Amino acid sequence: MRTVLARKMGGCRVLGRVLGSWRRRPEIHAARKAAGFGTEARHQQQPRGSSKRSRPLENQPFPGLLQPENLSPEQLIDVLRASVLDQKGPLVTLNKPQGLPVTGKPGELTLLSVLPELSRSLGLGEKELQVVRASGKETSGLVLLSSCPQTASRLQKFFTYSQRAQRPIATYWAVTDGIPVPSEGKIQAALKLEHIEGVDLVVPVKSPSRKDILEGVKRTLSFYRVVATGSGCALVQLQPLTAFPSQLQVHMVLQLCPVLGDHKYSARVSTVLGQRFLLPAESTTPQRQVLDEALIRRLHLTPSQAAQLPLHLHLHCLHLPGARPRDTPSELLAPLPPYFSRTLQYLGLHQQ
Predict the structure, then answer these.
(1) What is d(CA 45, CA 97) in angstroms, rounded to the nearest whole number?
(2) pLDDT, tens digit, for every residue of 98-124?
(3) I want to staple 281 with a disulfide (CB 3.0 to 4.6 A). Which of 6, 112, 133, 203 is the partner?
(4) Is the Cβ–Cβ distance between 258 and 267 less than 8 Å?
């Protein structure tokens, strides 16, 4: 799908042909394969200087999974260059690996901390990239960057307007432990961020008052649709209409179907005699997700590997505005990480 979105705004040549085919420059394609991105990946990335050989894909529990703590800034830049999906005009689209934080404390290795160097490595010179849209640390998928402030501002206004008009601009894929009932609908919940036992956690608020809203409680809304089911799990399409930390994870917990690999909120769902129910969020501390033994075997994992299961939540699609107000929005798409695709295969969850 190709859409020409060329326009001048404040001296910047805006958007250009944003979509189209991925850039397949030889060095980028080689770097993508080495870093383990895309469904064609066969080896996990090893830190430079490591003498350990990459194991075959079938012997890796989570192929292509990034470990930021093992990377230097230079290595992270190589990984990000390998994850470039498209670079047209001022816009750069990445397929962010799971586990990479966008922001962090001073001195931490994050996407923001290497943006100046990434800009130069992509040939943008002193035009430093800024984040327009990004998935969270534990979420994989699309990151939209811009080297033009006017373009970034225009896109942010489009995203804000679309959300207010309840038009989804972001589509996520998730694998859930459990199958949502009904198979399609919307989830509405008032959420707030609380500091509980040294951890920042999102908790639902029943019947929030006006005072609650003024003190940080936000009414949130997400659409969902079950795409496929198998082995007691589901592939779910999620479209948030609001933006709040961990919104989609908490919303799926409220459906009694936590996202696979959610080691922060899944403990709020308990089971007695085969029936699931919610535990009080304020008194439930984060812990490793507990999965059924049969499911662990189906995933070809050991219990210790299951305890390290990455979050299966992927920002798959973003809508961008057309060149003119009445033009149909275009789409940016990011393929699933290898470990995500492998889970779908093992669970028999086939995308339509």
Answers:
(1) 12
(2) 999 999 888 889 999 999 999 999 999
(3) 203
(4) no
